[in-house]
Amino acid sequence: MAARSGAKSGVKGGARRGRAVAAEAVVEAVDGGLAELIPDRDRPRGWTLLLDGAPQSHVDLDAPDRLTFEYQRRLGHVIDLAADPGRPLDVLHLGGGAFTLARYTAATRPRSSQQIVEVDAALVQLVRRELPLDPQARIRVRALDAREGLGKLPDGWADLVVADVFSGARTPAHLTSTEFLAEVRRVLRPGGIYAANLADGPPLAHLRGQIATAAGIFPEVALAADPTVWRGKRFGNAVLVASDVPLPVAELTRRIAGDPHPGRVEHGRALADFTGGATAVTDASAKPSPVPPPSVFR
């Protein structure tokens, strides 16, 4: 989910074809609500996916290495820094959306092996039909709950696990706990990276709890967010990054600070101070992430 606005209009049209004439929106009921694919006015084959009015992702079929939403750009930086440029990776994506980050990885790291786990089977069918994947990309899509799909992978399979899972604009409770992150670490290879799109607003209790939870499983944790989110001034996205080895914090900081919507990265003592004594979340205490205020999507 992206805390930004997106236009909505039109009825079902030919999203798969080039735009000799102006394309229309694709509107279709899926398991998780009403999905809308909104054509990008500036990109001939660009599309924004909304679920029940909440922007989920943007994809440009002509330029899959172009990321538009600020949280996706930040996750893209993590993908870029996960290994030497161009080196193929084994990547697990928890949450599918429009498959934007899997397409980005395939474009920037050819021959990567990727799995997407997306619980909404009808959404998977819609995206496959209207925004087809490159047939040369090694991407497998599985219609499963994220935690169930994670549990099916062997130990040490992934170089990178990317979590971007929202249901009704909220991260489900069972994907916020220590037990969930222990499974993530099991699936990661030594030196692998976990990156997650989170969303929270003042007083940032959810964000603090997620940092504490990650710090209980991974020795290295960093968080990137807009300065106004850090200060608790507004609801927004934050990208959590964790590993069992030192993270490329300096380069990640430089790249995120240079984005069109500059962000700030914290780690180490500063991040621990921000957490402010928050305790780790367990399956027994887990709650979904907060409900975004209506103004977030206007």
Name the descriptors.
single chain; 298 residues; alpha/beta; 8-stranded mixed β-sheet; 4-stranded antiparallel β-sheet; 9 helices
Structure in words:
By secondary structure, the protein is α/β, with parallel strands linked by helices. 27% of the residues lie in helices and 26% in strands. It has nine helices and twelve strands. The chain has helices at residues 70-81, 100-108, 121-130, 146-151, 178-187, 205-215, 227-230, 249-257, 268-275, and strands at residues 26-30, 33-39, 46-51, 54-60, 90-94, 113-117, 138-142, 158-163, 188-200, 220-225, 236-243, 264-267. It has an eight-stranded mixed sheet with strand order 7-6-5-8-9-11-10-12, sandwiched between helices. Helix 2 (100-108) links the parallel strand 5 and strand 6. Helix 1 (70-81) packs antiparallel against helix 8 (249-257) and helix 6 crosses helix 9 (268-275). The longest helix is centred in the N-terminal third of the chain and has 12 residues, at 70-81. It starts with 25 loop residues before the first strand and ends in a 23-residue tail after the last helix. The relative contact order is 0.14. Residues 4-21 have low confidence and may be disordered.
Summarize the topology.
Elements (H helix, E strand, L loop, with lengths): L25 E5 L2 E7 L6 E6 L2 E7 L9 H12 L8 E5 L5 H9 L4 E5 L3 H10 L7 E5 L3 H6 L6 E6 L14 H10 E13 L4 H11 L4 E6 L1 H4 L5 E8 L5 H9 L6 E4 H8 L23
Parallel strand pairs: 5-6, 5-8, 6-7, 8-9
Antiparallel strand pairs: 1-2, 2-3, 3-4, 9-11, 10-11, 10-12
Helix pairs in contact: 1-2, 1-8, 6-9
